[in-house]
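TODO from last week: model AsmA-like C-terminal region-containing protein.
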Amino acid sequence: MTIRRLLIRLRVLITLIIASGVVAGIASLIYLHEKGFSDAAGDRVAEEMERYGIYAEFDNLSFHLINGLTANNVRLFRSIERNVQIAELPALAIHVDKTKLMRGNLKINTISLTDAQLAIPLVRGEAQSPVINISDVSGSIDLPGAQSLSTTDLTGLYEGIRVTISCNIWRDAPKEDFVPDPESKSRRIAQYSQFLEQLQNWNWPSDSPPELKIFIEGNLSNPNKVDFDFLVQAKELDYKDYKMQDIELEGDWNQNLITLDNLAFSHQGERCQLVADFDLQQKNGRVKIDSTLHIQNFAKKVFNKRIMERFSSAGKTHIIASGKFQLPNEQQPKLDLQLTGNISGSDFSFNGASVNDLTTEFSWNNGDLYLDKLHVIHPNGKLHGRIIIKDQRVRYKMVSSLPARDYFPFIRSEPLKRELSKLNFTSKSYIDVHASGRMNLEDKTDWESHGHAELRHFSHNGVPVSYAQGKYRLDRTTATFTDLTATFDYSDYAMRKAYNGPKSGTLTAKSFHFDWPKRSTEIKTIRGTAWPAPVLRLFAPKIADHLENYKFHLPPTVSCSGLVSWAKGSANKMRLVVGFTSTGLTEFNFLKKNIGLTNIKGQVTVLPDKVQINKLSSRVFGGNASGYIHVTPSDSSYSGRFQWDKLRLKSISSTYGFKGLNQGSLTGSFTFRGKGSAIKTLNGHGNLALSNGDLFAVPLFGPLSSLIDSVVNPLANQQLLHERARDFSCNFSAKNGIFYSNDLTSMTPSTTFTGEGWIDLNKELLDITIRMNFRGLMGLAEVPMKVIELPFQALKTVLTGKEVKGLRQFRGSGKISSPNWQFTPFQPPRDGKNDPIFRKPPRAQVVK
């Protein structure tokens, strides 16, 4: 056999050997794939897996060209006793160390899973442990040594969440005397169960599930040192119907403590970023938040808690805060939340009061709230200060430019609201209120406020005020204002316009004290220069209406003290005293004409049912007048007394339209009473004296002048001896508007006039009898004394004859405006011979 043939045969043999080997290998692989390894080999693998804490049973081992060593129909158990199954896999790829296997040692390096279903207990060795079911598990688990494993690409689905797990964990060989703490295990089971229950409140769209990435590293024999890091990302999540977008959650879980390194999400265009930690065992934690969310809506939806119930926001609220919280538990059934930080908000309301913008530093402690550096912009002004709410008690200190009505949501006193509602502010108003006080949120009647204020360009009860300042103290039952200064604006005051008076007047007051239960206002020491009616209109409008009848051309100097009461019956203790003095002209309507008074002074006393004007004095008609008048507003009744001295007839004539009264003066008094403006109610008595005037220039007596001349001139042998009656006096009484007098007296050196009669101001009628005794040149002084003693009938004959020329009698009757005077038979006077008609008239003497 040649060498060449030998080589050919060797090549064929090698080919057959290789082919036989390949066939044998393929046959072995097919056999191992179909029949698997022996049971002994499977037990070896299971024992090796136990070294890593993996308790498995499988039907057999087989070999795949692609996957390698494969355990088929694998069942994983919770513990070595294999009584609680936690997973079932159709196949489990096992990668071994081939070099050690060639030496007869089995070392598993990696386990590969594909589409596996896992039920993972959160507490090892406990049948009651919560279980996480993960589907579609794929990836590989490296087993670097006994009781240790790691993975970088293990993925699966949990409740629709795409989960990626990376881990590096190990466990020390358990000591023989190691006994797990039963209480600790029970506590962890409860915590994990609660955590999984909370997960049931979360929902998300099926087409965009969240992604969860988990990294676990640590010694399982010492759970306190195991790091559990997680990262959650989602486009949209729904927690208890609270929708969140663009969610990113990053943190870690170490035994009982969950730490959120970053939680960020948005809700309806608003953004929240949060850093927190939470102790699962203690159910408490810390939080740091930067949020523009609607905080009330967030707390209600997420924590089912209502906070800041008096707060209602329609705009944006930005909160930057940090603090701590304690979730409800058996010992504390309410949420314990403590926060400090800053808040800025816009377009919201608190307790019904609207706010445009707000910024403040705050501290929140379970309903107790402290606001510092509070700045509020309101549609009607600004406010800044601080507020403390503790145990439902509110204390505050602030400076405000808001009008009174904007505080109504916080004021519980209805009487105070009614009083403050009389204040009216406009866009030109200036308000500077410095306020401090307290409120009880559980008792709306328990509150108090005090401070000082400066106001400009406002009105109270319709009275314009250009400037006011003072201190105040308010509570449920009283309101006290002290050290007040007010300047009234008279620009539009009708009396100022009518008389071109000053445009302002200033008053000061020691105090005003409103007492709502007593329905009264105590006033102490008002002083200044101001029209009295606007002053009283601030708190007593009806009285002010009455004072408008006194038309001051210039505001008088006034003083005021007393008590204003609006109580009824005997509880009304009204006594208000207003003193006034004016150097300017004051007009007052008297007998349907306005008379001018100067240097007027007086004192107005307001009682429950009466207004008294006492100590009234003034210059009028060139003379002096004084007196008093008391008015009962309820029925318009009045009473009073006036006396006047040396009033110039020329001025009176000019006022009342008399003609010819160009000289002389008038003196007298009148005590009267009446009701309303009806003359028929006027009653009283008085006296009147004319000095150095002309009686017959008075329209009432003017027609009598021609009759007197016809008597006097013939007696004087046609010589003009008529002397004017320059002095005149009488006493009179008034009854129901009719004035009576029976002692009219006027004397000249030659003539004496006396008389009696009445004047009816209701019907404007009169009936007056005048007697004249002409003396002087005739020398008849003794005749009347004799003839008066004659019988009445004989006296009439004598007196109507020609032998007694000096005695004459006249009667005036008819309309006051045009009386009819005529001769009448002489009748004896009422007082007989004592009548002044029979006296010798002294020269230039006024009889009163």
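Done. Residues 3-34 form the longest helix (32 residues).
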